[in-house]
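Q: Here's a chain of 296 amino acids. Please give me its 3D structure as tokens.
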Amino acid sequence: MNMSVVSGTEKEDLRICRSLNKKHGLNYYYAAAFFPAELRRSVYALYAFLRVPDEIADNNRSGGEERIKAELSAWLGKWRVACRKDVSDEPVLRSALSAFRRHNIPYGYSEDFFRSMFMDSEKREYANYAELREYMYGSACVVGLMLCYIIGFNDPRALEYASCLGEAMQLTNFLRDIDEDYRQRGRIYMPRDELAACGLSREDIARRRFSPAFRDFMKLQVERSAGLYRRAQPGIAMLDKRGRLAVRVASAFYSRILVKIKQMDYNIFLGRARSGTAEKTVLALRTLLTLPGGNI
């Protein structure tokens, strides 16, 4: 649908979704600007739909696990009712419902996402990478899958590649946010067995101990994430051409975080690895001109 013919209510709903995107996900927000207008509307709706439960799971400091579960259950309940009745009085859910209907996004992906949000209210550590991948499937891989339906794809293998890219981005975020996730939420998203293999434990993160062993651990994780980006790249060409540039830009933005971590000598306790607006602009231009955005 053309942006110029949406109703007043739809425009206000879009404004709310767009503001949530801008407030909470700048990498995603800047990359979304490279979608054509008719897709951007649905991308903003999807982000807002996912962000609300994510905020409940991550930033609910007024109550414990049961309070988080209750709020997540309430939001999930509203979503289920919206899907059943094809209507909602919540702007974000109304926008998401429209996007799901317009692009035939499988409903099951939304349930997979909520399953991981509930995991966040229960789990503080992950025993191994297989366990972490189970969480990442719902928290990130299905986001890539849903975006495939919004963009359109000409080969079913695009879904597998999109899932891989979602995993790469989520793992990148986890590496960048190791300190923040522990200090603000008491969570460690690094596989416990892999920490132990490097002679590390929860205490190293709790006490913010940077050591040669921690550097080695981070190198392994950064290379794992970089490998996922490389594996995901062939799938972008399987997407509808209208959405390829935006996905390439998003991939460049997120993979650049790995470069920043390397520039910090893998010491993520020094601060949050991030790119400024000017650097994002350069990365986007390089992507547009098909120039390399930096080796990982």
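Q: Can you summarize the key feature?
A: DSSP finds 14 helices and no strands in the chain.
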